Amino acid sequence: MFAxxxxxxxxxxxxxxxxxxxxxxxxxxxxxxxAIGIAAxxxxxxxxxxxxxNEQSEQRAKERKGEIASEIADxxxxxxxxxxNLGLNxxxxxxxxxxxxxxxxxxxxxxxxxxxYNEL
Amino acid sequence: MFAxxxxxxxxxxxxxxxxxxxxxxxxxxxxxxxAIGIAAxxxxxxxxxxxxxNEQSEQRAKERKGEIASEIADxxxxxxxxxxNLGLNxxxxxxxxxxxxxxxxxxxxxxxxxxxYNEL
Amino acid sequence: MFAxxxxxxxxxxxxxxxxxxxxxxxxxxxxxxxAIGIAAxxxxxxxxxxxxxNEQSEQRAKERKGEIASEIADxxxxxxxxxxNLGLNxxxxxxxxxxxxxxxxxxxxxxxxxxxYNEL
Amino acid sequence: MFAxxxxxxxxxxxxxxxxxxxxxxxxxxxxxxxAIGIAAxxxxxxxxxxxxxNEQSEQRAKERKGEIASEIADxxxxxxxxxxNLGLNxxxxxxxxxxxxxxxxxxxxxxxxxxxYNEL
Lengths: 120, 120, 120, 120
What we know:
The structure is a homotetramer of 120-residue chains. Chain A is built from six helices and no strands. The first copy, chain A, is an all-alpha fold and 120 residues long. Chain A has one domain: Orthogonal Bundle (Helix Hairpins), CATH 1.10.287. In chain A, helix 1 crosses helix 4. At the A-B interface, helix 1, helix 2, helix 3, helix 4 and helix 5 of A face helix 1, helix 2, helix 3, helix 4 and helix 5 of B.
């Protein structure tokens, strides 16, 4: 099997692109439709936790590990492709956002707090 | 700077984990709250395309490239962490889902079609 | 049958409240869980239009009228209850929002335009 | 002022329709775009509860009553219009769904339980 630990975002993105292009699906994958797909898949992920307490949700995440993995994968596949379609390097924009979050959430002020940066 | 092209999912996940743990945020990041966060960020991404035609959406994706990159990054950061929290290897589950999609969407039947696998 | 045309929001809200209380579900229906439920049901509604063009979506809305009605009803039932739980009169807050939209979207400026009020 | 308690769904729907038609917005309001709008507004509602505990969410629902009312109203306005656009009587489909839920969730089996009907 492939060495998943060393899997690059670029390599996985290439596989997604090839899957799509083999099916000529690019015309259906404009940014609006990609955003709809991501929101719909995020909704399916959320479905698993509707009306469930935090404890039940932890339990459910274990019992339904396969199903939940499948929803996470669906969001991921579309997200990797959308970034690629827009000429964005996903690793780079995620690193940039984390760097930005470092500034907005200084450790000293945000440690142990669930407040938003503009409420700290 | 880091070599983004060769960035591994594992490496980026480690950075996200370190960011979170430096702030002691693990207690807030149960699966239910992570799924809520992902859905809420996916909603922010979708916001950019509300009432916009496909053509306007293409245009907007260019004009607002930075903002949209930021929303995509937000979804990505939470998604990478959720997979990690559940003991899932994101690259592996995405590869598994793509393999499954290969079976559900054979090229010959799905080429150029936007039908769902159960409608093909 | 009941006279649906003359159905009041208050009357329908009362039915929803009675349904919930007969099952002792109030403890599960805090504002956070209600908002999750609404987002998840809105996601199911959105599912019907994933990858579909506008024309296909119009067609689908006719062919799947019953299913789509069921998703709309699910969102509605939770929305009516959430407003009620928070001590809000749904008709009143909707009227107030429409009045606000009248100011943000003056007919002369917004006629035939899909721009947001802050872009007009 | 109008008697909000006796406000009918039909009357409020008429106001929404008039608001839209005065601005010639019907062409933008196909079912796909309406479903996107509803999901995006439901996402804004959900935003208020991200990372918040149930207790904090109850508190927040009080402190931000006006803002949350505004998000609920946004979802409601789009939902009432979508039902109307599809030739659906919102009160009727909600009553039908409640009747269906009565069958799926018999009081004796579902009382005090947050299980889904197919798990009861």
